[in-house]
UniProtKB/TrEMBL annotation:
PANTHER family: ALIPHATIC SULFONATES IMPORT ATP-BINDING PROTEIN SSUB, TAURINE IMPORT ATP-BINDING PROTEIN-RELATED. Transmembrane segments: none annotated. It comes from Salinisphaera aquimarina. Keywords: ATP-binding, Nucleotide-binding, Transport. SUPFAM superfamilies: P-loop containing nucleoside triphosphate hydrolases. This is ABC transporter ATP-binding protein. One of its GO terms (molecular function) is ATP binding. InterPro entries: AAA+_ATPase (IPR003593), ABC_transporter-like_ATP-bd (IPR003439), ABC_transporter-like_CS (IPR017871), ABC_transporter_ATP-bind (IPR050166), P-loop_NTPase (IPR027417). It comes from the Bacteria. The keyword Transport applies. The keyword Nucleotide-binding applies. Pfam families: ABC_tran. CDD domains: ABC_NrtD_SsuB_transporters. Residues 6-234 form the ABC transporter domain.
């Protein structure tokens, strides 16, 4: 594996007012450019792990080493949520460019960055539309574009495709893989869907228990590109399911 970009060392987190941690003794890392899926049941703390890595909340114990700000015009990490959180009073271009404020870019540079990521997600002609004028799948693409616009070292994704239909979900998964391979940023992808994790990730970690811990952390032996129904991939998915 490549040198760690993010490293969690003995990390624990208590919800405010709770005596028992939601998770504890988390030890895992993500290499530069690596795609890692974090799988677990509802309420086990997957999204809380993401928020800790993003710095939105602080762990109750342990240490999280994250990348320093890599330079002007970038952020160390960017978040893609399950609900797209597009601002309804802003057109799509303004939504995509929202995270570029405060990065020291000129207006022309910000506009060029927005053009670049809208082209990347296949929505170059949609910039002047309002959020209510696009589909759920298109809204997820815009949420992804907003994250990519800040050129993060690591993309943090919280079940981003769970609210769309199966056909759209498969298409978005393939588009995400293409973008990841093209841009080379690391991805930490939270999902409860074992098949999705096995298809997308280079490595799958399973979070389980109360308090939760990492009980499975293995590389997917099948390289990209993958066939969803391949025997080897299904065998790996079955091992993940067993760990859950």
């Amino acid at each position: 594996m490549s040198a760690p970009l993010v490293q969690l060392e003995d990390v624990a987190y208590h919800y405010p007012g709770s005596q028992q941690p939601v998770f504890e003794h988390l030890d895992f890392s993500i290499g530069a450019g690596e795609f890692v899926a974090l799988v677990g049941g509802s309420g086990v703390g997957k999204s809380t792990v993401l928020r800790n890595v993003a710095g939105l909340i602080q762990p109750s114990g342990g240490v999280i080493h994250t990348p320093a700000r890599p330079g002007r015009g970038t952020r160390p990490s960017a978040f893609v949520f399950q609900d797209t959180r597009l601002l309804p009073w802003r057109r799509l271009r303004a939504n995509v460019g929202y995270g570029l404020s405060g990065l020291g870019l000129s207006r022309a540079q910000r506009e060029a960055r927005v053009d670049e990521v809208l082209e990347l997600i296949g929505m170059a002609d949609f910039g002047d539309r309002w959020p209510h004028e696009i589909s759920g799948g298109q809204a997820q693409r815009v949420g992804l574009a907003r994250a990519l616009a800040v050129r993060p070292n690591i993309l943090l994704m919280d079940e981003p495709f769970s609210a769309v239909d199966a056909l759209t979900r498969a298409r978005l998964q393939d588009e995400l893989l293409s973008i990841w391979q093209r841009l080379g940023m690391a991805v930490l992808f939270v999902t409860h869907d074992i098949q999705e994790a096995a298809y997308l990730a280079q490595r799958v970690c399973v979070l389980r228990g109360a308090p939760a811990r990492i009980v499975f952390d293995e590389a997917v032996s099948v390289g990209h590109p993958r066939e969803r129904e391949s025997t080897d991939l299904q065998a790996f998915a079955a091992r993940v399911a067993h760990a859950l």
